[in-house]
Design brief:
With about 400 residues, this protein is α/β, with parallel strands linked by helices. Helices cover about 45% and strands about 15% of the residues. It is found in: Cytoplasm.
Length: about 400
């Protein structure tokens, strides 16, 4: 039975800079080669991105039967296995092709050997043909994804016409975002204890106990050193985040590398330019830490953190209350006279806004409330009807 081994701390070495030819030093390459042959290894995985030249040189040293896989290729493979919808498959295929394009030279080295030195450039010609085919396929995929992007934009525009606040769940992969969505909405979204279980955004309506509503969107999980090709390919999906009224950063607080995961998510969010959107931090899986009460006390002292367990529902009420308070910060104050024949609009104010007072007059209902900006725009003509005494 063949084995797959990853480069672990036992086979790591500190270098000032990566070796331009083989990423690691020649001594470590020789050590790994011996281990590969001794263990009959089939795949060697590097926890970093390797250049095309480094991949080619390492495969030459390790032998043609050994696959050298870098971090990006591994993540793309996982994404490919998780892609359950047409959109996700398109996005992953695009990222894979763009990753493969500069690495095609490894696939055609056998043609140069077959030429025997008598016909120059035989392999090079085949490489150029293959690159042209791949570029054409990339162009087709980009057009399809642009169509998907336009469709998503139309969908978001329709959603804007219904002025309900949008809350997006973001966080490291496997932090529990889908479980939280399911717990709040009964959405039955796939939630498994594995990396990248969710690739497509899912939006569901959440109704709190006090009758208030908001839309909750589950997004693709992030990871340290997320490949730029994936960020670009998933642009249509990640644009859902930029349309949010509030971001909820879900953290697996029980994970030993929670701080590093938080930094990784913050880095991706900075690349998406969403720093102006308010954020709430959620420490999930608090039931798995050694001292849950101490963790809850620390979260309370920070002020912007809510502790919960999405799996068993502990802390969901605190979470919903924190969402309501955060959404209030993004709302605007209005005083409007709503005509009696606009009962549906008045209902929306009570459902998604925060009403301070209502007074019934001869001409309609005078409402003083905090409402989302989208709803405030709909109320503009009615605000003009009201003149403060």
């Amino acid at each position: 039975m063949r084995k797959t081994v990853a480069l672990s701390s036992e086979m790591a070495r500190r270098l000032a800079t990566p070796n331009p030819r083989t990423y690691i030093g020649s001594g470590k390459v020789s050590e790994m080669k011996s281990a590969i042959h001794a263990l009959d290894v089939e795949t060697v995985i590097f926890d970093d991105e390797l250049s095309p030249g480094q991949l080619r040189n390492l495969e030459k040293v390790f032998g043609k039967d050994v696959r050298v896989c870098d971090r990006t290729a591994l993540i793309l493979d996982i994404f490919n296995q998780r892609a359950a919808t047409h959109e996700a498959a398109l996005q992953v295929a695009l990222a894979q092709m763009e990753y493969q394009l500069p690495r095609l030279t490894r696939m055609w080295s056998h043609l140069e050997r077959q030429a025997g030195g008598r016909v120059k450039g035989m392999g090079e010609k085949q490489i150029e043909v293959d690159k042209r085919i791949l570029r054409d396929q990339i162009g087709v995929l980009k057009k399809e994804l642009e169509s998907v992007r336009r469709h998503r934009k139309l969908y978001r525009n329709r959603r804007v016409s219904v002025p309900i606040p949008v809350v997006s769940l973001v966080g490291y992969t496997n932090a529990g975002k889908s479980t939280l969505l399911n717990q709040l909405t009964g959405a039955n979204v796939l939630a498994e204890d594995r990396l990248f279980a969710t690739l497509d955004p899912t939006t569901r309506r959440v109704q709190m106990k006090n009758g208030k509503e908001f839309l909750l969107t589950d997004t693709v999980g992030f990871i340290q050193k997320l490949p730029t090709t994936l960020v670009a390919a998933f642009r249509a999906t990640l644009e859902e985040i930029s349309e949010s009224s509030l971001l909820v950063h879900v953290v697996d607080i029980s994970h030993p590398l929670a701080e590093q995961q938080i930094d990784a998510v913050d880095k991706v969010l900075s690349e998406l330019d969403v720093s102006l959107i308010p954020m709430l931090i959620v420490w999930n899986k608090v039931d798995k830490v050694s001292d849950p009460e101490k963790m809850k006390a620390e979260a309370k002292s920070r002020g912007n953190v809510v502790c919960l367990s999405a799996l068993n529902g502990d802390g969901l009420d605190d979470f919903c209350n924190a969402i309501q308070e955060k959404l209030k910060d993004s709302m605007v104050w209005v005083e409007a006279l709503v005509p009696f024949d606009k009962g549906e609009l008045l209902s929306s104010i009570h459902r998604i806004g925060m009403v301070e007072t209502t007074d019934y007059t001869e001409n309609g209902t005078l409402v003083k409330a905090y409402v989302p900006l989208r709803l405030a725009r709909l109320l503009t003509p009615m605000r003009q009807l009201y003149v403060s005494p």
